């Protein structure tokens, strides 16, 4: 390329090529050096764009993890006749007609997002945007740029013209911040400004922008413990905790299990083209006695697996269709688990890389089963950050 510039005396710009033993992708710019009208040589500048590609991939991943939608559910979609759930629905209904910030608390799988939808649907903002963000699934810098937006030139790879943030997009509507207990101190400070001043500052900008957004936050974390440990701002805690609503775990509303099962059977019949009618008395006794660490989400998983185990034409879920709910993953032998990771490998996958992928996927699934679907506990069990855990779930095509 330098020879070409020496020959033509014309600069070469924006040429993409791969260099070095790691074949890094770079953009090459070469220009002639002319002093006093004489050619003295050439100069080349290599710009590594592999980081830009990596950032672009992260941004695409962020878009997949953030859902822009109108609220799909109302309070009528929350199933149950127990006094516990009826009291919770009534409390949420009262909160819906106010503009106040709501903090939904409860174990994983209890239905916090369902309540967030219902609150928005019953509020004065029901015709506005409902945007759900999983705060634990994105790296801190990505989450900041997605929530607050950025101006042109804010960072390498920033789009020309900048980007509108989710708070700005949700103007006049509701933003649902799931896993709020996982955000960094930096983002806690910026979120506090939104709650106090009703304004945002884009990344790379010095000017504030007014926003009119209702915030519904949710967490299964012990925020009080995080407060004591200095990991969560006290002022933000009180700004979020204006209307705290605790979603009861399934074990505290066991009388709702038959109602939920009936609803789930109807839903799976539609999805799987089945005609299942009910669960047998023996099967129902097992389900009623189980402790449900994964709550309604785990019940949905169990009923779905049971229906898949049934033969076409069978109409009653029997005891033998249900997975063994008494199995403790802590006591399960390690050798069979290693064997399970090998099962299902195609011939093209046999080898270290293929085995490693299957082993990692099996480990993720086993840990989720052990923690009843609680992703925070599963990440802790595997000694990894919650964000890295979400990344691996998505990489293996597991539900986030």
CATH class of the largest domain reads Alpha Beta
CATH fold-level label of the largest domain: Rossmann fold
Overall geometry: globular
Order the strands across the largest sheet as they lie in space.
4-6-9-12-5-13
Task: Write down the overall mean pLDDT.
Answer: 84
The assigned structural class equals: alpha/beta
Largest sheet: 6 strands, mixed
Can you count the helices? Answer: 16
Beta-strand percentage range: 15-25%
Q: What is the CATH homology-level superfamily of the largest domain?
A: P-loop containing nucleotide triphosphate hydrolases
**Number of separate domains:** 4
Q: Low-confidence stretches at least 5 residues in length (pLDDT < 50)?
A: 328-350
Alpha carbon gap, first and last residue? 47 Å
CATH architecture name of the largest domain = 3-Layer(aba) Sandwich
Query: How many DSSP-defined strands?
Result: 15
Classify the helix fraction into a percent range: 40-55%
Rg over CA atoms, rounded to whole Å, is 27 Å
Keyword list:
400 residues; alpha/beta; Rossmann fold; Helicase, Ruva Protein, domain 3; 4 domains; 6-stranded mixed sheet; 3-stranded antiparallel sheet; 16 helices; 15 strands; 43% helix; 18% strand; globular
């Amino acid at each position: 390329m330098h020879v070409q510039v020496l020959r033509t005396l014309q600069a070469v710009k924006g040429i993409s090529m791969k260099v070095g033993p790691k074949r890094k992708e770079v953009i090459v710019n070469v220009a002639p050096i002319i002093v006093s009208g004489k050619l003295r040589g050439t100069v080349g500048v290599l710009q590594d764009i592999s980081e830009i590609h990596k950032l672009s991939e992260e941004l695409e991943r962020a878009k997949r993890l953030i859902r822009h939608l109108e609220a799909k559910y109302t309070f009528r979609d929350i199933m149950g006749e127990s006094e516990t759930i009826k009291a919770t629905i009534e409390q949420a209904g009262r909160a819906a007609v106010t503009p106040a910030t709501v903090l939904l608390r409860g174990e994983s799988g209890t239905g916090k997002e369902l309540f967030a939808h219902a609150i928005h649907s019953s509020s004065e903002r029901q015709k506005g945007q409902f945007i759900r963000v999983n705060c634990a699934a994105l790296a801190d810098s990505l989450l900041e740029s997605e929530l607050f937006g950025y101006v042109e030139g804010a960072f390498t790879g920033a789009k020309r013209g900048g980007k509108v943030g989710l708070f700005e997009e949700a103007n006049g509507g509701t933003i649902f911040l799931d896993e709020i207990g996982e955000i960094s101190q930096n983002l806690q400070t910026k979120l506090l400004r939104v709650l106090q001043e009703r304004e945002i500052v884009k990344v790379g900008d010095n000017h504030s922008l007014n926003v009119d957004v209702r915030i519904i936050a949710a967490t299964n974390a012990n925020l009080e413990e995080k407060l004591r440990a200095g990991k969560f701002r006290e002022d933000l805690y009180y700004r979020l905790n204006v209307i705290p609503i605790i979603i009861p775990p399934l074990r505290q509303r066991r009388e709702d299990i038959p109602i939920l099962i009936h609803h789930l059977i109807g839903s799976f019949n539609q999805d799987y083209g089945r005609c299942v009618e009910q669960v047998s008395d023996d099967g129902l006794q097992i389900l009623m006695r189980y402790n449900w660490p994964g709550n309604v989400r785990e019940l949905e998983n169990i009923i779905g697996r049971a229906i898949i185990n049934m033969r076409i034409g069978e109409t009653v879920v029997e005891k033998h269709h249900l997975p063994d709910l008494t199995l403790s993953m802590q006591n399960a032998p390690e050798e069979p688990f290693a064997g399970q990771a090998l099962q299902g490998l195609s011939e093209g996958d046999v080898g270290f890389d293929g085995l490693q992928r299957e082993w990692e996927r099996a480990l993720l699934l086993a840990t989720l089963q052990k923690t009843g679907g609680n992703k925070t506990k599963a990440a802790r069990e595997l000694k990894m950050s919650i964000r890295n855990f979400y990344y691996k779930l998505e990489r293996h095509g597991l539900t986030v």
